[in-house]
Amino acid sequence: MARPKIDEELVRQLVKLLDESGLTELDYSIGKLRVRVSRAAGKAAPAVAVETSEQAAAPGSLDADAISSHPGAVTSPMVGTVYVAPEPEAPPFVKTGDSVSEGQTLLLIEAMKTMNPIRAPFSGTVTQILVTNAAPVEYGEVLLILE
Fold first, then answer.
1. What is the pTM of this model?
2. Low-confidence residues in the chain, pLDDT < 70
């Protein structure tokens, strides 16, 4: 599939808006084109990702509306930094396809120098993990999907 032509002026405007607003991430979609501009905490240059809706709709994945309203969506109860493992070199708490029990630790969120475990609200299978290690997360952001 041919890569879409990137509107450089649009990207510049989004980066400028990101800088002016103090936000860490912007998501912009028009038609089949999606542009995401994000800045990890403490990094100077924003990262820009461009994808078409065909790329975004990977097999087994859900769109943003379906994710936020999914009954198995596990959301962040706070703003912070998410960690998928207890230590940098340790294996992750869970992987896609893992069966989990109610109360099992799925992730950690560091907020105000405190590690807060995010526990499974019910038993099920992890079908999607929507965050990456050491990424900033917002209150109410969907972290993963359990079914």
1. 0.57
2. 1-6, 29-33, 39-66
